[in-house]
Structures are given as structure tokens and as C-alpha cells.
Specification:
Elements (H helix, E strand, L loop, with lengths): L3 H14 L20 H8 L9 E5 L19 H11 L4 E6 L4 H8 L5 E4 L4 E3 L5 E3 L4 H4 L2 H11 L6 E4 L4 E4 L9 H14 L3 E5 L2 E5 L6 H12 L8 E6 L5 H6 L5 E5 L11 E3 L2 H15 L1
Parallel strand pairs: 1-2, 1-10, 2-3, 10-11, 11-12
Antiparallel strand pairs: 3-4, 4-5, 6-7, 7-9, 8-9
Length: 297
């Protein structure tokens, strides 16, 4: 036990250090002001999107369209946010897609708007308004390990308030509700080891570790696929906007860098991000949607 402790501690430190993404774009420290209102978006987007322009709007859900909560089942989108998003989607001048870490049916149920494209499991699943689905292929030997991985996690690292979210093709090990923080580094490091031992990729996220199949796919590639399949090879000539709050959203921000505009939802002025701007809250995302409404109405 004594000989293994230093190695376990080192493993925890290495994993926790990986929670901060190594991203090379400037931090945009002038953004993320405490109070964001519609005039701020005139400054950020006024020269990019003119009244009457058609645009593609891509959004994350948890932490972007809805406040983060202690349990995903408790997360709710405000009626005002939903109505604004519905107005944009129904305007005829905006293409809307939500790309979430949740399973695709779960995020559609949470939002409840019919004429937008939903993507779940960080882009592994795509659900179109007409019911057509696109799923990235997962190797059979890896898929066969899915239930075994969940069982192992439940037996070994689920305690003190942590739990495993089963998203059908991926999982999230949550430790947001763990009250005694001393347990978290060991739990997170061990969860990472277990996930990887079954052939899945382990990625840090908000107070959690995500287990994804070893498919070379992410939200950025999903966004590119959705835009390319919905329009044509010249989709970059459209005005593309994206907002997200997590490290997994950085792939979309990186993908549209230079051609679209993106927002990272964070109050951390020191956070380095691929986004063009930082905005501090879900409420500021609502102001962004209201600004877009004024352009597509």
C-alpha cells in the first residue's frame, strides 16, 4: 500500500492537470463581463451579421442553453430561452442545430423544438427533423465492453455521491455531488483507468470524466458533418455562430475559427480558449439569442 501510494498520487496529479486544455489561441481577457446585454453583441457581431442575413446557429445545451445542476435530470431550459430559440428556428433565415454530450433523444426531449437538428453523445448521433438518424460506427468488440465498463465503475468508484450516467454509446462518471473533496482525485484517476481498460477514451469535463468510444470523432467534426450535409461544400460562406461552455465545445470553436464566430460561456477570465469571445452566463446566451432574433425577424 505504501509503495503504491506515490504512483497513485502522481497519476491523480497528471489527470487533474489535464482538466485545463492546452489551447494556443488568445484568452480574450477583455470579455466575460459580469453583465452582458444586447448592445454588447452589436460590438461583437454587428459587422459580421447584418439584418436579413441567413445564418447557421450551433449550440451546446448543458451550461449554455440551460444552467448546470447537480443532476442532468434536473436541468431545465427557461421558457424565455426556448421561445427565443423557437422564433429563430421558425424564422426561415436561420439553420439551428444543438450538439450535446447527452444522448440525442434526451437532448431533444429537454428542448422540445421540432424543426432543428439534434446531435448527441458529442456528435456520435445525429437526429434530423424528419426522423432520419446518422450514427458513427463503433467497433463491435468495444461496444460489447460497454455494460462491463459500467458495472466495473459502479463497483469500484461509485461512492460518496458519485454516479455513472449511461448514455447508450458513451458514459459520464459524475463527481459534482461528492461532498468530501479529498476523494475526488483518486476517484477521477481510477475512473479514467477503468474506462481506458475497456477500450474507451477518457476525457475530463465539468466535475466528471467522460468515457467515449475510440472513434475519431468530436463535436467539431460533427458540426462540420451537419453543416456539410445540410448545405454544400461552400457552407463556410454562410454566417456561422456557435456557443458552448465546456472543453468538448472547443473542437467546434477551432473548426469555425476564422470563418464563423464563437462564444465560450465562462466567468474565468484566465481561461485560454479557441472562442472569439467569452460570455459569462446562460443569461448572456439568452441575450445572444434575442440579438439574433432582431437580425432574422
Amino acid at each position: 500500500m505504501a509503495r503504491g501510494a506515490p504512483l497513485a498520487a502522481l497519476s491523480c496529479l497528471i489527470f487533474l492537470n489535464s482538466l485545463t486544455p492546452l489551447i494556443s489561441w488568445p484568452a480574450n481577457d477583455q470579455d466575460a463581463q459580469p453583465d452582458m446585454s444586447q448592445p454588447d453583441f452589436d460590438q461583437y457581431l454587428g459587422e459580421y451579421i447584418k439584418p436579413g442575413d441567413t445564418l447557421a446557429l450551433l449550440l451546446d445545451y448543458d451550461g449554455t442553453l440551460a444552467e448546470l445542476t447537480s443532476h442532468p435530470n434536473l436541468t431545465q431550459m427557461s421558457d424565455e430561452m426556448r421561445q427565443s430559440l423557437r422564433t429563430i428556428a421558425n424564422s426561415g433565415k436561420a439553420f439551428v442545430s444543438v450538439i450535446s454530450g447527452r444522448d440525442v433523444d434526451g437532448v431533444k426531449e429537454k428542448i422540445g423544438i421540432e424543426n432543428i437538428i439534434y446531435s448527441g453523445n458529442h456528435g456520435l448521433e445525429v437526429l434530423y427533423p424528419n426522423g432520419t438518424r446518422h450514427n458513427q460506427g463503433i467497433p463491435k468488440d468495444v461496444a460489447d465492453n460497454f455494460d462491463k465498463m459500467i458495472d466495473h465503475l459502479n463497483r469500484e468508484v461509485v461512492h460518496h455521491g458519485s454516479w455513472v450516467e449511461n448514455k447508450r454509446v458513451s458514459i459520464t462518471f459524475h463527481f459534482r455531488e461528492v461532498r468530501e473533496e479529498k476523494y475526488i482525485p483518486e476517484m477521477a484517476a481510477r475512473a479514467k483507468e477503468i474506462i481506458e481498460s475497456y477500450g474507451y477514451r477518457a476525457n475530463p469535463a465539468h466535475a466528471s470524466v467522460e468515457g467515449k468510444p475510440p472513434v475519431q470523432w468530436n463535436k467539431g467534426l460533427a458540426a462540420e458533418y451537419i453543416l456539410g450535409s445540410s448545405f454544400d461544400a461552400n457552407w463556410r460562406q454562410r454566417k456561422v455562430l456557435f456557443a458552448g461552455d465546456d472543453t468538448t465545445d472547443e473542437d467546434v470553436m477551432k473548426m469555425i475559427k476564422g470563418s464563423g464566430r464563437s462564444f465560450r460561456v465562462t466567468k474565468d477570465k484566465e481561461l485560454v480558449t479557441n472562442a472569439d469571445h467569452k460570455i459569462p452566463s446562460v443569461d448572456s446566451v439568452y441575450h445572444l439569442l434575442r440579438w439574433i432574433e432582431s437580425r432574422v425577424a
